[in-house]
Amino acid sequence: ELNDTNMFMVKNGIVYTPFADACLPGITRNTVMEIALKNGITIREKNLSLTEFYTADSAFATGTMGELTPIKSIDGRDIKGDDTLMKNLQELFRAKVTHLCENF
């Protein structure tokens, strides 16, 4: 985890994020988790190794300013898998934020 963002990875149709025991749980992180559950997307908290991120289908960071930001490489290793699920979560997140702003 980073000082102001949280990380997620997608592998075999499942979204993973590390437990929030070594970082703040994050509002954006929690929102992504809620959106996933509400939309039938399997999400699991799990302590993840760097090697697991290397072999992810996709990875992204979440934070207030960047919302859902794709991670394209880690340690110079490209993440070249299917990013469809991550893009779906981006769209669902954006729709939720837009709805909240319109009704504020």
- Assign the structural class, choosing from mainly alpha, mainly beta, alpha/beta, alpha+beta, or little secondary structure: alpha+beta
Average the pLDDT over all residues and give the rounded result.
Answer: 90
- Widest sheet, order of strands: 3-2-1-4-5
N-to-C series of helices and strands: EEHEHEEEEH
Radius of gyration computed on alpha carbons: 13 Å
The quaternary structure here is single chain
The overall strand count is 7
Main pleated-sheet profile? 5 strands, mixed
Question: How would you sum up this structure in a few lines?
Answer:
With 104 residues, the chain is of the alpha+beta class. The protein has helices at 27-38, 50-54, 84-102, and strands at 6-11, 14-17, 43-45, 58-63, 67-71, 73-74, 77-78. The strands form two sheets. A five-stranded mixed beta sheet has the order 3-2-1-4-5, with helices on one face.
Describe the protein:
The radius of gyration is 13 Å and the shape is globular. The protein has helices at residues 27-38, 50-54, 84-102; strands at residues 6-11, 14-17, 43-45, 58-63, 67-71, 73-74, 77-78. A five-stranded mixed sheet has the order 3-2-1-4-5, with helices on one face. A two-stranded antiparallel ribbon has the order 6-7. It is of the alpha+beta class. The relative contact order is 0.21. The chain is 35% helix and 27% strand. Strand 2, helix 1 and strand 3 form a beta-alpha-beta unit. The protein has three helices and seven strands; from the N terminus they run E-E-H-E-H-E-E-E-E-H. The mean pLDDT is 90.
